[in-house]
Specification:
The chain is mainly alpha-helical. About 40% of the residues lie in helices and about 0% in strands.
């Protein structure tokens, strides 16, 4: 869910993105599956770990990430009980919830490194 958008993208807010993703994490943690397949775990993939401030198009296209390009969290997902959440903690918490996110994270990390290395 995008955390920001243009004037005509009223649903693209931090509050809506936080609510959507927090509810998703809560549902994943419950291991309830779906109504059609209640006993099967759900696989979820993060569309964007980081906001992409250079991506063209509507403002919402640049705001699907959980983190800003500088590594700060866009909003708290409630995975950390302490006052100061760290990037590493929220990533490791998400990976504990669903180990397959590790693959997604590694792909994003390689992509991010390539963007710094490429001219």
């Amino acid at each position: 869910w995008p955390s920001a958008g243009d004037v005509d993208e009223a649903g693209a807010t931090i509050q809506n993105a936080q609510t959507y993703n927090a509810n998703l994490v809560q549902h994943l943690a419950s291991n309830k599956g779906t109504p059609l397949r209640p006993n099967l775990p759900i696989e979820v993939y993060i569309f964007a770990l980081f906001n992409e401030n250079l991506k063209p198009g509507p403002t919402s296209e640049r705001h699907y990430g959980l983190f800003n390009p500088d590594g700060r969290m866009v909003y708290d997902l409630g995975l950390d009980n302490s006052e100061s959440s760290s990037t590493l903690y929220i990533i490791s918490s998400a990976l504990e919830l669903r180990p397959f996110l590790l693959v997604c994270f590694l792909c994003l990390a390689v992509s991010l490194l390539n963007s710094f290395i490429s001219p």
